[in-house]
Specification:
With about 110 residues, the chain is of the alpha+beta class. It has one domain (about 1-110). It is about 40% helix and about 25% strand. It contains 4 helices and 3 strands, in the order E-H-H-E-H-H-E. The chain has helices at about 10-20, 35-40, 60-70, 75-95; strands at about 1-5, 50-60, 100-110. The chain has a 3-stranded antiparallel sheet. The longest helix is centred in the last third of the chain and has 17 residues, at about 75-95.
C-alpha cells in the first residue's frame, strides 16, 4: 500500500514544491517505488490494484506539523523559511479554517 501525494491537486503540488525546496530535493520527496517485482513474483498470483483518494484535513498547526514530521527538513534557515511559506500557502488556500493535502492511495491485493 502506498500513499502518494496527488500532484494534480494545486494545493498539494504547492506544498510538495515547498518541502522539496526546504529538503534540497531529498530522495524521499521524489521516490517512485516500482511494483514490478510484486507483479512478476509467483508468490502473489492475480495481483490487482485498487486506488482511492484521501484528503488530509489540516489546520495551520497541523499543516506545519505535517511538514516538520519528516526527518529530512534541516533545522535552521531552511526550516524557518518553510514555516513562513506554509503559513502563506495556508492563507491562500484555506477554506473554513482548513487546507487539504490530497493523496492517491494504491492498495495491491493478491
Amino acid at each position: 500500500m502506498w500513499n502518494d501525494r496527488d500532484r494534480s491537486d494545486e494545493f498539494t503540488q504547492s506544498y510538495t514544491v515547498l518541502v522539496q525546496i526546504a529538503s534540497k530535493n531529498h530522495p524521499a520527496e521524489s521516490r517512485l517505488v516500482s511494483v514490478d517485482p510484486l507483479l512478476a513474483s509467483p508468490l502473489f498470483p492475480n495481483v490487482r490494484c485498487r486506488t482511492f483518494t484521501y484528503r488530509q484535513e489540516l489546520d495551520p498547526n497541523g499543516l506545519i506539523g505535517r511538514a516538520m514530521s519528516v526527518s529530512y527538513i534541516p533545522p535552521g534557515a531552511a526550516q524557518q523559511q518553510l514555516v513562513s511559506d506554509l503559513q502563506e500557502l495556508y492563507n491562500r488556500y484555506n477554506k473554513n479554517g482548513f487546507v487539504y493535502l490530497v493523496y492517491r492511495t494504491s492498495v495491491y491485493l493478491s
